[in-house]
Amino acid sequence: MMLVMTDLEALLHRAAQSAADHRAEVRERSVAAPGRAEDVRASFAVPLPEGPTPPERVVEELIAAAAAGLTGTTGPRYFGFVIGGSLPAATAADMLTTGWDQAAFNEALSPAAGAAERAAGTYLKDLLGLPATASVGFVTGAQAANNVGLAVGRHQVLAQAGWNVERDGLVGSPRIRVVTSEERHATVDRALRLLGLGTSCTVSVAADSNGSIDVGRLAAALAADPGTPTIVCLQAGNVNTGACDDFASAIPLAHEYDAWVHVDGAFGLWAAANPATAQLVRGVEQADSWGTDAHKWLNVPYDSGLALCADPHAHAATMSYTAAYLTGSDGAQLVLGDLTPESSRRARGFAVWAALHELGRTGVADLIERNCALARRFAAGLAAGGATIYNEVVLNQVLVGFDDLSRTDEIIEAVQRDGTCWLGGTTWRGRRLIRISVSNWSTTADDVDRSAAAILAVVAAQNK
Ligand SMILES: *Cc1c(COP(=O)(O)O)cnc(C)c1O
User: Fold this and answer.
1) Is 142 touching ligand 1 by the criterion CB < 6 Å?
2) How confident is the model at residue 331 (pLDDT cuts 50, 70, 90)?
3) Which of 102, 222, 347, 454 pairs with 302 at a CA distance of 20 to 30 A?
4) Model confidence band, residue 1 (pLDDT cutoffs 50, 70, 90)
5) For 133-194, what is the HEC assignment?
6) How many Å separate Cα 229 from the centre of its chain?
7) Is it the case that residue 160 has pLDDT exceeding 90?
8) In contact, 318 and 289? CB cutoff 8 Å
9) How much is the mean pLDDT over the chain?
10) How far is the CA of 46 from the centre of ligand 1 (A)?
């Protein structure tokens, strides 16, 4: 018979132990999920129990069902997408967040959740070189942050045109254009669809060879239609190349047209926190809103993103329940829920606060610097083995191809099967390439060398 154990303490210990075991194992086992997706689906898709199950048995069942389907994303040799592996203190803080179960809508619901977000927001603005008076909404990720920044932009440029979009909607409103890079992230288009602007409002500006917006063409695009309410959406950190737009030139230019400038800085905004990469995002503090992730380069557990706005009033006027909220001049009176699309939500500030304390200012800079250096090492190691590197490795992203690019996906699959590391593919400027992102705090030079050797061995075996 089942052990009868209704003790919550033991249950949480068991969960913590299993999570810690997973993290220890992913350092050495195959980085790809060890089982087949069909089998994992079958493990979960058992019939719904007719009645209750003891909690300790549920947890054991869950651990057993998930085991074959857990990827090694927290481990040091996962280089797919842009994936951080959550830091120890941030992971523990996130478990506490679950245990404490606070709703972060306002400080009446949870003084601690509110205080953590305010303090973490202050640290973040300092580290990223953004205005200390900016408002900070703790959202699910950069997608949500882009939704918020572009929504505030929509509010502001229509208000300038004498239109109250919160009250009157978009039917009959002045037309808005969104001038943005051809290299924008897909989340920008989704945000525009959700906001009712539609993707046809975009004016796509060509980018240079590494993916930064061409500022001359941006100037021409702005000048072509000068009276139209305009949002300019720029990018810090192209998901393929790591390239950042030239903010010092582009933002003042956009402001000459009274445009709202939003920056999608999901991971690239973190370049500001490291003196050696800060010049890549020079001038970014002049924007009107910024979106970034904590769950990517800050290595905080999912889901954790930040929507920042230079004008707290415009931020709250767009996002709050009453959508006409006005408070103290620095936004200090705004409640947390005035700045996010969610009402009740997870207290995301605890894990961000913990990550920033674990690393400190120099630790954040060092994390960014180390990952960038490892990305360069990866590129050099692969190039020495015959690969072509297709981007300028300015940050943590590397684009790789071997002789016959039509075989790129075969190579990727074989590398994933080999299990030493995990990486994915992308199409960049018409070429099918391998994409490597070095974003994890625990990745070492040895991890990179082992991974590069495994990739080269896979390619050599295929060429036999
Ligand atoms: C990852 C990414 C996003 C989306 O971030 P989520 O955290 O997945 O919502 C947006 N923009 C860029 C440039 C990204 O790299």
Assistant:
1) yes
2) low
3) 454
4) very low
5) CCEEEEECCHHHHHHHHHHHHHHHHHHHCCCCHHHHCCCCCCCCEEEEECCCCHHHHHHHHH
6) 28
7) yes
8) no
9) 95
10) 34
Of 57, 74, 61, 58, nearest to 19 by C-alpha is 74
Q: How confident is the model at residue 332, as a pLDDT?
A: 55
CA separation for the pair 286, 417 (Å, rounded): 46
| CA 77 to centroid of ligand 1, rounded, Å | 20
Q: Is the CB of 342 under 6 A from ligand 1?
A: no
Beta carbon of 187 within 6 Å of any ligand 1 atom: yes
Averaged pLDDT, 135-160: 98
User: Which residue's CA is the closest to the ligand 1 atom numbered 1?
Assistant: 266
Q: What is the mean pLDDT of residues 250-260?
A: 98
Please tell me the distance from the alpha carbon of residue 130 to that of residue 254, in angstroms, as a whole number.
18
Helix ranges (H only) for 309-444 are 312-319, 349-384, 408-418
Tokens of 133: 């008076």
Q: What is the pTM of this model?
A: 0.96
- What is the length of the chain? 464
Rounded to whole angstroms, the Cα distance separating 139 from 152 reads: 15
Q: Look at ligand 1, atom 14, and give the residue with the nearest C-alpha.
A: 266
What is d(CA 415, CA 457) in angstroms, rounded to the nearest whole number? 9
pLDDT at 328: 44
* Rg from Cα positions in the chain: 23
Indicate the SS3 state at residue 428: strand
d(CA 380, CA 445): 12
Query: Distances from the Cα of 9 to the Cαs of 14, 57, 96, 188, 211, in angstroms?
Result: 9, 15, 13, 44, 51
Quickly count: other Cβ atoms within 10 Å of residue 208's Cβ.
16
- Tell me the sheet residues that pair with 434: 400, 425
Asked if 320 contacts 338 with a C-beta cutoff of 8 angstroms, the reply is: yes
Reduced to 3 states, what is the DSSP secondary structure of residue 81?
coil
